[in-house]
Amino acid sequence: MAYGQTVKITDEQYNQSGAIKIVFVQSIEEAKELAEEDIRKGLPFLLLQSGISPVVYPTDSEFEETFKAYYYESGCTGPRLEYARAYNQRIFSYLTETHGTKWKRKIRKDVIGFKK
């Protein structure tokens, strides 16, 4: 796993996050519930899957600090795409509820499900 955040998220917070647990879910509803739990904890993640070499951009930390949603790169392995999309869709809704639509101009375009 690769973490490119400047915000200090503890190992315990990562280990208890839906971003870690999503590889074990068996339904879209479970994926959405993990997103809800992360939102309640104040640590929503945006799931990425770029391959064997994780990609971190200089603008990632600016997005994370502004919108309080954190990128999570699963590398070349990760959850089923439909579950990652469902998780991220709930986070997208949360971002719209809390920040309007301005987050859409700043988000990484490779976040799973964003282009749909």
Explain how this protein is built.
By secondary structure, this protein is mainly α. 47% of the residues lie in helices and 7% in strands. The protein has 6 helices and 2 strands. The protein has helices at residues 11-15, 18-21, 28-41, 59-67, 81-99, 103-106; strands spanning 45-48, 70-73. Helix 3 (28-41) runs parallel beside helix 5 (81-99). The two termini are 25 Å apart. Mean pLDDT is 90; it is low at 1-5.
Note the run of SSEs as H and E: HHHEHEHH
Taking all Cα atoms into account, the compactness measure Rg is: 13 Å
Major sheet summary line: 2 strands, parallel
Distance between the termini: 25 Å
Low-confidence stretches: 1-5
Proportion of residues in β-strands: 5-15%
Task: List the strand order in the largest sheet.
Answer: 1-2
Estimated helix fraction: 40-55%
The total count of helices amounts to 6
Q: What is the multimeric organization of the chains shown?
A: single chain
Shape: globular
Q: How many discrete structural domains?
A: 1
Structural class: mainly alpha
Task: Provide the residue-averaged pLDDT.
Answer: 90
Task: Find the count of extended strands (DSSP E, 2+ residues).
Answer: 2
Keywords:
mainly alpha; two-stranded parallel ribbon; 6 helices; disordered N terminus
